[in-house]
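forwarding from the other thread:

> can someone predict this with pyridoxal-5'-phosphate?

sure thing
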Amino acid sequence: MAPPVRRVPWPENVARPLVSPLQPSAVYVTDGPDVLDDQYAGALPGYTYAREGHPNADVVAAMIDRLEGVSGGIITGSGMAAISAALLGPIRAGDHVLGGDQLYGRSLRLLTETLPAMGIEASTADATDLASVKSAIRPETRLILIEVVSNPTIRLSDVEGIAALCRDHGILLAVDNTFTTPLGFSAGQAGADIIVHSVTKLLAGHSDVTLGYVAARDPEIANQIRTLCITMGLTPSPFDCWLAERGLMSFEMRFERADANATRLADALDGMPGVRKVLYPGHASHPDRDRARRLLGNRGGHMLSIEIDGDRDAVTRVVAAMPEVAFAPTLGDITTTISHPASSSHRGLSVEAREAIGITEGFLRISVGCDAPDRLIEVFKRGLAAI
Ligand code: PLP
């Protein structure tokens, strides 16, 4: 039996839905080759094939564009897809890429394993130290990738110095603004040529989508990135975009609450029995406090790390004593989560390499959520008493 002819009803109406319709169609129907020609030539608007773009992704891109104060952002299937596109779009064989040496683990692997395997030179430098970055620049350096706040050591990159270096040397600056978010840090104003996000984290905020975002200031670079995303199929799923749109509706509110909660939790943890060290950019004792003030203003953000007075067994006891806080290697959830870098993000490093950047077995990273703050502090007190 022949399948029925599909005519999707789209009634003329004076009203429209408040919530964006979920549009899972992989392909779009037009009236014939002349219309399609005009679409591809850009003379007529309209979607063609979902890998090349779809309405749910465009809605999310526009929301993040607004937050970042830029235009033309692209949504990808994950944060790593966005970072890969940010690098592979503009760079060419023979170029050199430089990255902060405390980038997210997979970004580091992209630099140290994937790019070299493709014949692209890449190296790392300490982004908190301008002299280290300066001395790592080569004549063929095309792009520098940094994060504003390092993960999980919570150190602040010298964004101002690196942006000036990039301007002077004609190097593209790509900033992964995931940790800080557009409300915590304006990457565009700081001089980023390319901005990336793992939307999976606080932007979407509910641990139920995997998405990324990438935007470039220069239209030619933006076009190179967009073409790469389409060709390599880094496309996001419409349903993930639809969920992310819903999450983004409450992003500003969640950010305010998580930031305030983190400040309170960091204050409470400071001096709590069993806590050796609290790393929070909002604290006067933070090693990069002045830079944190300049880059983040009065905010400390929703991420903090602590070192407890104990080893892995002590961490296991703490985790077991506070089941309300999920032990999960992610960040940006609506609730507070805790992770142990030595057994997760940094498990690939040797003990010596980990300890050189302060990641001991007693080191914990906390992603503070929107929980009731008094209760959260009580839970941590109970957990840490188990050390
Ligand atoms: N950038 C940062 C700072 C991250 O923490 C992560 C993931 O944890 C990523 C990028 C990668 O994002 P995704 O997991 O969405 O690919």
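The chain has a mean pLDDT of 95. thats all i got for now
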